[in-house]
């Protein structure tokens, strides 16, 4: 079974260019496909369009200063619509199209859905709203439990995925002027920081400040949730490259992880509750009664990440990676599980790279295979992600 796994492609991000002219952090930036351009919005209140010159450097093409710092944007390459501006064909002009008075506080995420002519947005006022982008009218609103930091939409079924700071993902079914709550996904112990929807495989990825990514298999109908543990810090951005079946994730510690999603991973087991070690039967320290009866010193309860059993430290002294359960780092396993994990099972299913800046945002452009990262160092970096031919 394990022998059938395809070997992950070597895809080392190669730095192509840097854009360094910002006064403050670039909150969002996107690559303009076919044009060799970049659009950026920044805390320094600017919206800028950059075009690549023959020298390979990016030079500013248009520039617009907003009354407030810019927190997010949504750009549609087909219509060249940038939330509320329309970019001229030669990218030398920005035409204000519309202002939406959607939120009381700062706008956190916007998403333009061309097929529906909808503009979805969330704000610090904890409202999720959607507007008609033709009339500018507000169509509906939904009050979320906490501030929303991740937003994705499935055009085919009109479901919105809303990830918030309580760690929960709410699934809403949107109609023209109302919405209904379908279900919630609870799996993270920290804020949801990023969401990524792959409409092809009908899989939702959520990244969190708890360092983990969860893959929610919505299309598979089995309701599986697979954990991906490969970051040592907050997950800040997620992109899915559908043609190579790779998930790209970035974290505030500067690491970029490329996950091979062509392998079948297993769900992590539920942690079992027990008053004593499920291997040697020594009681855990809070089990006062049994401890007293058997006159043994209580032990600390740990869990084997592979079988989920509650075990003492002595019965789980070894560590192992379990890539097929999403653990790219070594985790606690019981002695019996440790013996059952083969060298083959330990083959990594993700590759790790250092971007050398603390990232706040990433964007992957499939047609060029380029990745854009934006950091707290106020720099945008562009990377070539195409496979290395050896
Ligand atoms: Zn034990
Ligand atoms: Zn075990």
Automatic annotation (TrEMBL):
<keyword id="KW-0967">Endosome</keyword>
<keyword id="KW-0863">Zinc-finger</keyword>
<dbReference type="Pfam" id="PF01363">
    <property type="entry name" value="FYVE"/>
</dbReference>
<dbReference type="InterPro" id="IPR015943">
    <property type="entry name" value="WD40/YVTN_repeat-like_dom_sf"/>
</dbReference>
<protein>
    <recommendedName>
        <fullName>FYVE-type domain-containing protein</fullName>
    </recommendedName>
</protein>
<dbReference type="GO" id="GO:0008270">
    <property type="term" value="F:zinc ion binding"/>
</dbReference>
<dbReference type="InterPro" id="IPR017455">
    <property type="entry name" value="Znf_FYVE-rel"/>
</dbReference>
<dbReference type="GO" id="GO:0005769">
    <property type="term" value="C:early endosome"/>
</dbReference>
<feature type="domain" description="FYVE-type">
    <location>
        <begin position="271"/>
        <end position="342"/>
    </location>
</feature>
<keyword id="KW-0677">Repeat</keyword>
<dbReference type="InterPro" id="IPR020472">
    <property type="entry name" value="WD40_PAC1"/>
</dbReference>
<feature type="repeat" description="WD">
    <location>
        <begin position="185"/>
        <end position="218"/>
    </location>
</feature>
<dbReference type="InterPro" id="IPR011011">
    <property type="entry name" value="Znf_FYVE_PHD"/>
</dbReference>
<dbReference type="InterPro" id="IPR001680">
    <property type="entry name" value="WD40_rpt"/>
</dbReference>
<keyword id="KW-0853">WD repeat</keyword>
<dbReference type="InterPro" id="IPR013083">
    <property type="entry name" value="Znf_RING/FYVE/PHD"/>
</dbReference>
<dbReference type="InterPro" id="IPR042234">
    <property type="entry name" value="WDFY1/WDFY2"/>
</dbReference>
<feature type="repeat" description="WD">
    <location>
        <begin position="228"/>
        <end position="262"/>
    </location>
</feature>
<dbReference type="GO" id="GO:0045600">
    <property type="term" value="P:positive regulation of fat cell differentiation"/>
</dbReference>
<dbReference type="InterPro" id="IPR036322">
    <property type="entry name" value="WD40_repeat_dom_sf"/>
</dbReference>
<keyword id="KW-0862">Zinc</keyword>
<dbReference type="InterPro" id="IPR019775">
    <property type="entry name" value="WD40_repeat_CS"/>
</dbReference>
<dbReference type="Pfam" id="PF00400">
    <property type="entry name" value="WD40"/>
</dbReference>
<keyword id="KW-0479">Metal-binding</keyword>
<dbReference type="InterPro" id="IPR000306">
    <property type="entry name" value="Znf_FYVE"/>
</dbReference>
